[in-house]
Design brief:
About 40% of the residues lie in helices and about 20% in strands. It is built from 3 helices and 4 strands; from the N terminus they run E-E-H-H-H-E-E. The chain starts with a strand and ends with a strand. By secondary structure, it is of the alpha+beta class. The radius of gyration is 13 Å and the shape is globular. Strand 1 (about 5) and strand 2 form a beta hairpin. Helix 1 crosses helix 3 (about 50-70) and helix 2 packs across helix 3 (about 50-70).
């Protein structure tokens, strides 16, 4: 946690502070769908001027990083509900 490092089977990547906070939120709420608004408030705060689109950008970046690590988890989306971290099979 202190190093903001995401580890896969054979390599690791250092995440930015915000990427780490988003990933940590998913890990702490595994299996629970979080809306874009939930993520925005919990990571950026209530008083933020950030737009919901920023959440999508960070999720996209995290998905790419998880894929490059051959991670056994992925960020799944359910339309009009939100995002969750799920273990992949295989």
């Amino acid at each position: 946690r202190n190093s903001y490092e995401l580890q896969g089977k054979n390599k690791s990547l250092v995440l930015s502070k915000i990427e780490f906070q988003v990933m940590e939120l998913f890990m702490l709420n595994r299996g629970i769908y979080l809306s874009t608004e939930d993520i925005l408030v919990k990571v950026w705060g209530y008083e933020t001027d950030a737009e919901p689109g920023i959440v999508w950008v960070y999720i996209s970046n995290l998905r790419k990083k998880l894929l490059s690590l051959n991670a056994n988890v992925e960020i799944k989306a359910k339309r009009n509900i939100g995002y969750t971290l799920e273990e992949t099979i295989g």
